[in-house]
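Please decode residue identities from the backbone states below.
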């Protein structure tokens, strides 16, 4: 007597169900739901299809919370996994199953149980824009820089150079009272003096009695911009302080002031005249 294949598969399904029951697996219920799921009335290949459907339905994917990645730091929120079922709804052929519990029971009879899969952690990228304020330019050389001559921000007129912190239209050579001083910067009140370093600079002539005695520029006061001129025509009252502090700011005077400056500059008792 020949036994048809569908009947054999149905018998195998019920045999598996019986074994599960004997093993204490009470989740497998032999009911109309199981017969609808595992039955062969839909063809000999249906049990394999039913198993695949059960696997899809009972598969659960755990998706970790997103991780936000910044250009400067990575922030990982506290783990609180979210569960998402990958499977579709209960198949239409299992209409005898009144809900998820009964359908899951039928699937367990087929040897298909819940499976949890952890999905890759999703990431989002955010770009953090940092604004850096520009800093004002600084000056480091006030002795020869024509844009910062003597003091920061003091720009020498066009056609002049910065020499020892003084804007000058001529290259001053260090001169002394004995040799006489030469005018510089086209200004009758400015002369080529000698600094305490032995270099020449164009400085404003001034009355000796009002000048500060010095040995170096530091004696003229921090930030004053004055230069210590030695070998001037001013008397040396203290040997340790042989120079006088003169201003190197010798811009060309306005024409209306030339006559007044010229009359004042050649009086005796000044740094340029005895």
């Amino acid at each position: 007597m020949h036994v048809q294949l569908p009947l054999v598969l149905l018998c195998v399904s019920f045999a598996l169900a019986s074994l599960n029951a004997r093993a204490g697996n009470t989740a497998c219920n032999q009911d109309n739901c199981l017969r609808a799921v595992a039955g062969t009335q839909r063809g000999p290949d249906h049990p394999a299809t039913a198993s695949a459907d059960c696997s899809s339905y009972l598969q659960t994917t755990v998706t970790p919370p997103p991780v936000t990645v910044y250009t400067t730091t990575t922030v990982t929120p506290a783990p609180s996994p979210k569960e998402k079922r990958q499977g579709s709804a209960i198949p239409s052929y299992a209409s005898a199953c009144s809900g998820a519990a009964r359908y899951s029971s039928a699937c367990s009879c087929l040897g298909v149980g819940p499976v949890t899969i952890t999905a890759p952690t999703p990431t989002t990228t955010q770009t953090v824009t940092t604004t850096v304020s520009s800093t004002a330019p600084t000056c480091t050389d006030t002795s020869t820089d024509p844009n910062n001559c003597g003091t920061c921000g003091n720009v020498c007129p066009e056609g002049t150079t910065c020499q020892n912190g003084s804007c000058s239209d001529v290259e001053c050579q260090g001169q002394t009272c004995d040799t006489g001083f030469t005018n510089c910067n086209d200004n009758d009140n400015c002369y080529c003096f000698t600094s305490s370093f032995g270099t020449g600079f164009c400085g404003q002539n001034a009355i000796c009695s009002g000048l500060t005695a010095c040995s170096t520029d530091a004696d003229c006061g921090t930030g004053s911009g004055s230069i210590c001129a030695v070998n001037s025509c001013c008397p040396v009252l203290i040997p340790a302080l042989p120079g006088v502090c003169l201003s190197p700011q010798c811009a060309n005077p306005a024409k209306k002031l030339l006559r007044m400056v010229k009359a004042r500059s050649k009086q005796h008792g000044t740094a340029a005249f005895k």
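Observation: The chain is about 20% helix and 20% strand.
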